[in-house]
Amino acid sequence: MIIYKNAINFMEYLLSIIIVIEFASVYSHFDSYVSNILNVFTIMILLLLIVTSFLYLTADHKISAKLLLIIVSYYIFFVFPFIFMNNRMYPIGSLFVLQLFLLPLMLFYFEMCFLINNPWSLLDKICKIIYIVAIISMFFWLLCSVFKVISPTGTVTTDWGPKRQIPSYYGVYFETQPINFGSIDTVRNSGIYTESPMFAFTLSLCYGFRVFIQKKSARSNILLILSMISTMTSTSVIILLGSALVVFLENTKFNKKIQFLIGPLILIIVIYLLWLIALQKITTGESFSVRMDDVHAAFLDWLQNPLFGNGIGNFESLINKMSSARTALQSHLYIGFSSGFMQILALGGIFLELIYTIPIFAFGIANHSKYGFYGFVFSGMILILFFNLIISFEWLFLILLPMLFSFSIFHLGKPIIDDQETNYGI
Question: For a surface tag, which of 190, 289, 403, 413 has the fewest beta carbons within 10 Å of its beta carbon?
Answer without folding.
Answer: 413
